[in-house]
Amino acid sequence: MNSNGNGIGNTGTNFDGKEIDFPVTYQLKAVMLGTENDDDSKEKLVNVFNELEIAHKYADKKLSSKGAYVSFTYTITVTNRQQMDALYAELKKIKELKFAV
User: Fold this and answer.
1) pLDDT by residue (tens digit) across 59-69?
2) SS in 3 state form for 30-78?
3) What is the rounded CA–CA span in Å between residue 66 and residue 74?
4) DSSP strand pairing (97-100 vs 7-8)
5) What is the pTM of this model?
6) Is 52 left (phi over 0), alpha (psi -120 to 50) or beta?
7) Which of 16, 54, 57, 80 gets the most CB atoms within 10 Å of its CB?
8) How many Å apart are CA 63 and CA 71, to the nearest integer?
9) What is the pLDDT of residue 3?
10) Could you report the per-residue pLDDT of 13-57, keeping only the tens digit for each?
11) What contacts 10, CB < 8 A, 6 or more positions away?
């Protein structure tokens, strides 16, 4: 966890104990504070994907039962380990992000 309290679920070293063969396509779920505007939250995520040239497609949005959090799911394709490490490093900088898996 970093100073704003957000954490990253998978650091990119492996998935379920298996080594990653790049490129890899998977669903990334980002849980954000529900107090933010959905479009603003999605824009912050998309900006990271675009900056790192990560192919992405919006898949789903879910609101927590009390509305405190909202999760956005994107299908992304990461081409190498460096890009994956950079992705999680950049996601940690989003103060509204609680965690990403």
Assistant:
1) 999 999 999 99
2) EEEECCCCHHHHHHHHHHHHHHCCCEEEEEEEEECCCCCEEEEEEEEEE
3) 23
4) parallel
5) 0.82
6) alpha
7) 54
8) 6
9) 42
10) 455 677 889 999 999 999 999 988 999 999 999 999 999 999 999
11) 88, 101
Neighbours of 60 (CB within 10 A): 11
Residue 82 above 50 pLDDT? yes
Q: How far is CA 46 from CA 10, 19, 79, in A?
A: 19, 26, 17
Q: Which of 60, 33, 57 is nearest to 46 (CA)?
A: 57
Dist CA 95 CA 13 (whole Å): 24
Residue with tokens 């990334």: 28
Q: What are phi and psi of 44, to 5 degrees?
A: -60, -40
Phi/psi of residue 46, nearest 5 degrees: -65, -35
